[in-house]
Write a structure and sequence with these properties.
Order of helices and strands: HHHH
Oligomer: single chain
Largest sheet: none
Radius of gyration: 14 Å
Number of helices: 4
Shape: extended
Structural class: mainly alpha
Distance between the termini: 29 Å
Number of domains: 1
């Protein structure tokens, strides 16, 4: 997500010091404060950011990554 915000986005400055360690990173492992979770939610709700972040995440995800079972179910519904 760091690739999508600039130095002007002060609400997300706390992400500059976060080092992601793998595909299972989440706010549980990052131990985000409620105000930080709200800042991320706000950011993702603007200008189609949620789509762009998700698209980039999929692009950088390794081929051999675990695919959750529920995702296969959803793919089945859409095909």
């Amino acid at each position: 997500m760091k690739k999508y915000f600039s130095d002007q986005d002060r609400a997300l400055n706390f992400l500059k010091d976060v080092e992601a360690t793998g595909e299972n990173d989440s706010y549980f492992s990052l131990d985000l404060k409620p105000s930080q979770m709200e800042a991320i939610d706000t950011f993702l709700g603007l200008n189609n950011n949620k789509y762009f972040v998700a698209k980039k995440y999929i692009e950088i995800l390794p081929e051999n990554s675990h695919v959750p079972e529920w995702l296969g179910v959803v793919r089945g519904w859409l095909s």
